């Protein structure tokens, strides 16, 4: 891969990482700590939503983001012809 293409690939990868980490930050720190009082006014399945995000939701968000990252990187790898299959 040419150096210019390699930098484009890396730049796109970093863009995905920043966006996904921002989403994870909002899911774990934002919903689990910062907005917990507002979210606790909502109940889902008998649990306060802020409590749920602090205990379970941030983990689910993280796992979903891993799958999203894999899909995005597979697409990016094919776009830059660095895929493994």
SSE order and pairing:
Layout: H1 3-34, H2 36-39, E1 43-44, E2 47-48, H3 49-79
Antiparallel strand pairs: 1-2
In short:
With 85 residues, the chain is mainly alpha-helical. Helix content is 79%, strand content 5%.
**First-last Cα distance:** 17 Å
User: Number of DSSP helices?
Assistant: 3
Sheet/helix structural class = mainly alpha
Q: What string gives the helices and strands in order?
A: HHEEH
Instruction: Record the strand order, biggest sheet.
Output: 1-2
What percentage of the residues does DSSP assign to strands (E)? under 5%
Relevant terms:
mainly alpha; 79% helix; 3 helices
Q: Could you describe the 3D structure shown?
A:
With 85 residues, this protein is mainly alpha-helical. It has one domain. It is built from three helices and two strands, in the order H-H-E-E-H. A hairpin with a 2-residue loop joins strand 1 and strand 2. It comes from Chloroherpeton thalassium (strain ATCC 35110 / GB-78). This is Sodium symporter small subunit domain-containing protein.
